[in-house]
Amino acid sequence: MTWFDGLRPRITLAIASILELAIVVSSGTPVRSQPTSDSSDPTGRPTPIVNFEPPPGSGQPSGNRSGGNRDCFAGTADSNGNSFLTLLVPETLQGLTVNARPALFAYLPPTQARSVRLKLEDEDGNLYFYDDDLPVADTPGIYQFAFPDEAPDLEVGRRYQWTIAVTCREEARYDDPAVAGWVERIEADSSLALPETEASIALAATYAAEGLWFDTLAILAELRQARPNDPNVRREWEHLIESIGLAELATEPLKTRSTP
Fold first, then answer.
1. What is the pTM of this model?
2. What is the rounded distance in angstroms from the CA atom of residue 111 to the CA atom of residue 17?
3. What averages of pLDDT result for each successive group of 10 residues across the chain (260 residues)?
4. For an engineered disulfide with 181, which of 89, 158, 176, 202 has Cβ 3.0 to 4.6 Å away?
């Protein structure tokens, strides 16, 4: 058998396909294109790869916006109409981390407040960390709060309640605007990248797939600060914030506020 004999069946099939297409076109029947893999959403933008699925709650009240006396927010709102002190956590108020001192994030609206208070307690109510004099900037935005080096590491397998409160008067009061959430440190799986791995969208996607909210958020925050004009970073950040029901905060400026 010659090499041509081997091609004969394929040539015959190709000719048959061409004739079939010609018949369909001449009959006026529309030709359907075959589906192709598409990494874009209906608007034509690339589909985000950082997809976080909030874990189920465990009985705690949900809601990540402040209550209490809101006098220091009265009559104020940012350009998008936001006027609540808001934690950047899922509505279950819970999040996981593999970090011994995870960064915490909260949105502060325009305010006449004097300072912000940050408190961390374990499930038994024991005080783990407290700072009552974090200065507030004049402009609203998403603030990052980092624990100092002398703060004790979070213990693996334990849950901690962290509270952000705004001091509206000369002294702190029980009815100052406040909101609290939960953070739990878990053992890092061997498949996870080491903490010293360079921040990247791929690393954020890995953490998100593992349900590690605080680590995913911190990586994208780092990328957003380092590459503020990168549309891919901006898309992933906004998609992540929208995934926890805070779409109105997705485009708010990101600020860094470290504890002394």
1. 0.74
2. 70
3. 38 37 36 34 72 67 46 60 82 92 90 82 89 72 84 92 85 80 89 67 93 96 94 96 92 69
4. 89
